[in-house]
Specification:
By secondary structure, the chain is mainly alpha-helical. It has helices spanning 4-34, 39-44, 54-60, 66-78, 94-111, 119-138, 146-150, 161-188, 192-203, 209-215, 223-236, 251-269, 277-303; strands spanning 51-52, 82-84, 90-92, 239-241, 247-249.
């Protein structure tokens, strides 16, 4: 099996997911607003389907300020979306599960009218996704399979093939998170903010605390928090000051970053050997075709004024 083939397929999977999100997310958000459902319930369904807790959420998302989760939980409890348990967890109510299922279905309903690809080709994509996921489920750890096993599923065997493909891709997306965190977490432990500050500096996405507070505002941290995180990264030897207002990775930091990247790939692609070279090439061809057809489908939506209508 070519080393590059799985990586090419994974990049295509991400592109396909971007198209799925572009089509479905506006309808999910509209359904949440119209039915007075907190959109965070939908976001958090990726972190847990039956129970919510800060500890469990941080297993997949160690980078968000835990106070942000706690505030959301308090709002959810007041409205009866979740119920407190003695062990600092919350039980997700049937009402909340039904609400998330309803708004996700509002997005998936838009995909159900997708007819730009032969059903046989969609069936092949679903079969290959299931084959790959089975290999991931059966693979030895690491990676741990926390995200992979906890996300909320809304599809079944009777769902349209295109909707099944979306759900299966989200499972693989979760497994990629498992692979990344299994590779990176040993280096940052509970200090996810330090790792994200380091990652931002290495990638160039943000090179000081003020930029991090702006580009990562959804994490719920202030510039002062990132200043402390950057200082910790300096103390560890991962980054150093470039000048009075910016930082850059050290040689040690760059080496660590590459090691984690390679280990993530090793964990993630290990299961792909379950597919033959011929199956992988066919998989790539089918996903490339799906990506093109989804772009065309999305443009039709915009042209017809259906997105966000």
């Amino acid at each position: 099996m070519s080393e590059k083939t799985p990586a090419r397929i994974w990049r295509l999977m991400l592109s396909v997911m971007q198209e799925f999100w572009a089509i479905t997310e506006p309808f999910i958000e509209d359904a949440a607003v119209q039915n007075e459902i907190p959109i965070e319930l939908y976001y958090y369904s990726e972190l847990g389907s039956t129970h919510f807790s800060v500890e469990e959420f941080q297993k997949r998302d160690p980078f968000t300020n835990p106070e942000q989760f706690e505030k959301a939980f308090a709002r959810f409890e007041v409205k009866g979306w979740i119920f407190p348990l003695p062990d600092e967890r919350y039980q997700v109510s049937a009402k909340a599960q039904g609400a998330v299922r309803m708004i996700v279905n509002a997005g998936d309903a838009q995909l159900s009218v997708f007819h730009l690809m032969p059903e046989d080709e969609l069936r092949q994509i679903v079969r290959l996704l299931k084959q790959l996921l089975t290999a991931m489920i059966e693979a030895d750890e690491p990676p741990a399979k926390w995200a992979f096993g906890r996300r909320f599923h809304v599809t079944d065997a009777n769902s349209p093939l295109i909707v099944q493909a979306r759900e299966l891709l989200m499972d693989i997306f979760a497994y990629r998170d498992d692979a990344y965190l299994s590779a990176a977490r040993p280096h940052f432990g509970q200090a996810g903010i330090v790792w994200e500050a380091f990652d931002s500096i290495v990638s160039g996405a943000a090179i000081n605390a003020a930029q991090m507070a702006e580009t990562l505002s959804f994490r719920g941290y202030e510039a002062e928090d990132y200043e402390i995180a950057i200082h910790a990264a300096v103390e560890i030897g991962w980054v150093e000051a470039k000048d009075a207002t910016s930082f850059l990775p050290t040689a040690k930091g760059r080496q660590l970053y590459e090691e984690v990247k390679h280990l993530t790939d090793d964990y993630f692609y290990r299961s792909w050997s379950a597919l033959t070279e011929e199956e992988l090439e066919n998989f790539h061809t089918l996903l490339a075709a799906l990506h093109e057809r989804l772009i065309e489908f999305r443009k039709q939506f915009f042209r017809n004024g259906r997105i966000g209508s």
